[in-house]
Amino acid sequence: MSKTGQAALRKLIERGGEFKLDSDLDALQEAAAQASLAWCVADCEKARSWSAVFRSIVKAVDYPEFFTSGFDGLYDCLCDTLLDQKAGVVLTFDKLHSADPAIVNEGQQFLQVLGDAVDFARENGRVFIYAIHHAGKHEAATPGVVHNWSDEPG
């Protein structure tokens, strides 16, 4: 990693914010471990709705209950999770199908909540870093095949 990249990573570890996945994710993971930040991965590959994305977040951060109040509930979940951690949290969204119509419609609100969580973390002496691996759009639904966030291979 270049000196510029290292300086940007140090700043991110100190202040929080979005980590662009065109950078070195392994370097972020190593720096997060050194800073005692919790590392969480939300597997969004099968999520076709915000409700499914929320379930993947709940599972990733080990939140004790599923919230149903939409983006307000997401904010509460992230804030509670941050307060439960000594230093902060890195949350990566793996394979978020951000081009799906159900996801696109409220994508800006999602990013706003993540930004608000970054601010909350700073105000409370913690760090919140998020990274989104955009996976485009899901394939079209196949008749007779159920696509569910909880599908398990047979």
CATH topology: Barnase, Chain D
Number of domains: 1
Q: How large is the count of helical segments?
A: 6
Query: CATH superfamily membership, which one?
Result: Barstar-like
Indicate the proportion of strand residues: 15-25%
Largest sheet, described in full? Answer: 4 strands, parallel
Q: Which class of secondary structure composition applies to the elements?
A: alpha/beta
Uncertain spans: none
Helix content: 40-55%
Strand order of the largest sheet: 1-4-3-2
Question: Your description of this structure?
Answer:
By secondary structure, this protein is of the alpha/beta class. The protein has a single domain (15-134), classed as Barnase, Chain D (2-Layer Sandwich), CATH 3.30.370.10. The chain contains six helices and four strands; from the N terminus they run αβαβααβααβ. The protein has helices at residues 3-15, 25-34, 50-61, 70-84, 101-104, 107-123, and strands spanning 17-18, 38-43, 88-96, 127-134. Helix 3 (50-61) packs parallel to helix 4 (70-84) and helix 4 runs parallel beside helix 6. The N and C termini lie far apart (41 Å).
Write the layout of secondary structure elements.
Layout (H helix, E strand, L loop, with lengths): L2 H13 L1 E2 L6 H10 L3 E6 L6 H12 L8 H15 L3 E9 L4 H4 L2 H17 L3 E8 L20
